[in-house]
Specification:
alpha/beta
């Protein structure tokens, strides 16, 4: 079963699917390939991907950063929304998973818009010139690293830039006090940090496994 938005019943999820733009052939192939993997649950939902495509097409960012690429569905969704001069930098550590991504980016005709760097994402971010301007970012990697990724990106975020952060509802575990697992605690602390950060405005969207949208304070 493909990933779905948190909290939806089978019937309501099917309704969402039927009323959201259908993944194209390459996207569906990537969904099917990833869902056949034991780690397939890490893939974002198709409706979340379409949201990213529409948002990207509206923002028309020049430079996008993705932290955590996995098999490339979110990157493909973002790249589909980029204008001719838009570029996406993807940060990941897995050659195995991103080889699937590369293949599908090529097939979709968006590979020329994407640069993939295989290295710890925090090293890649810190190596960016201080005058780099990030127009859009998506964070979806190791949860303990979220705050560091956020800070590096925020320091370079365009005045009207947007940061999207995945898994911020964490299947509801963020409100389960009995769950003290490392990732859950890290996500709670990150969510609290953003919620009290006077530098930004944010909204937590119940899309996928929870997506927090962040921009600079007005």
């Amino acid at each position: 079963m493909s990933p779905r938005t948190i909290g939806l019943s089978d019937a309501l999820n099917q309704y969402v699917v039927e009323h959201t733009t259908t993944p194209d052939t390459v996207q569906q192939q990537l969904i099917d390939t990833t869902q056949a993997m034991s780690s397939g649950g890490m893939q974002i939902s198709a409706d979340q991907g379409e949201f990213f495509t529409i948002l990207t097409s509206l923002l028309q960012p020049s430079f996008v950063v993705e932290v955590g690429t996995f098999t490339g569905y979110s990157a493909l969704a973002i790249a589909k929304g980029l204008g001719p001069s838009g570029r996406l930098l993807c940060c990941d550590v897995s050659e195995e998973w991103t080889s699937i991504a590369r293949r599908h980016w090529e097939e979709a005709g968006v590979a020329d818009r994407i640069e993939l760097r295989i290295a710890p994402a925090i090293d890649t971010l810190r190596a960016l010139p201080t005058d780099t301007v990030i127009d859009l970012a998506f964070i979806d990697a190791d949860k303990a690293g979220y705050r560091d990724y956020y800070e590096e990106i925020l320091s370079r975020l365009a005045p009207n830039g947007v940061i999207l952060v995945d898994n911020t509802l964490w299947s509801g575990a963020v409100v389960d006090d009995a769950d003290t697992s490392t990732d859950t605690v890290a996500l709670r602390e990150f969510n609290d940090h953003v919620a009290t950060d006077a530098r930004v405005r944010q909204v937590m969207l119940p899309v996928g496994d929870g997506v927090t949208m962040i921009r600079r304070a007005l």
